TrEMBL record:
One Pfam family here: CM_2
Domain named Chorismate mutase: residues: 33-124
The keyword Secreted is annotated on this UniProt entry: no
Cross-referenced NCBIfam families: CM_mono_cladeE, PRK09239.1
Keyword Endoplasmic reticulum found: no
Gene3D superfamilies per record: Chorismate mutase
Keywords, in A-Z order: Isomerase
Coiled coil: none
One Gene Ontology MF term: chorismate mutase activity
Protein name: Chorismate mutase
GO biological process, one term: salicylic acid biosynthetic process
UniProt organism field: Bifidobacterium commune
Length: 132
């Protein structure tokens, strides 16, 4: 159990990765209770952001699926490196302006574009009605 006495904080605990929020500690210590209350609020905000991100991702994949079908019909390759480079530069700027570590945005873009290209390849091979 985390020692949340006056002389200790979470960073000095050696079981930081196993410690769950503890209602009994919150009842016994007003400082813990305050932290738990704020964490609960913040988690609500995190849930809202996660829901928005997932909804936006679904929207993005709808657009890219349409691009994939059009590319396959027109005989274009699934990948467009120039477009990817322009996106990377633009999103880097967005991340920096938003105060986000650009490596987080780079990981996101890498993941999502790789998945889109995999689906485009699938569409190109199996056809637009394949459920890729
Ligand atoms: C969606 C496209 O296809 C691929 C996927 C991209 C993406 O997910 O943003 C960008 C470029 C392409 O490599 C596209 O060409 O616009």
């Amino acid at each position: 159990m985390t020692d949340f006495s006056e002389t200790s904080d979470v960073s000095s605990s050696d079981d930081w990765c196993n410690t769950a929020i503890d209602d009994a500690q919150a009842r016994a210590n007003p400082r813990v209770a305050q932290a738990v209350e704020r964490i609960t609020e913040l988690r609500q905000s995190i849930d809202n952001v996660d829901a928005a991100i997932v909804s936006l991702l679904a929207e993005r994949f709808k657009y890219t699926a349409e691009v994939g079908k059009l590319k396959a019909q027109a005989g274009f390759a699934p990948e467009d490196r120039e477009r990817e480079q322009r996106q990377a530069a633009r999103l880097n700027e967005v991340a920096v302006n938003a105060g986000l570590d650009p490596s987080v945005e780079e990981h996101y873009l890498q993941f999502v574009v790789t998945e889109v290209k995999r689906r485009h390849q699938c569409i190109a091979r199996a056809g637009a009605k394949s459920g890729c």
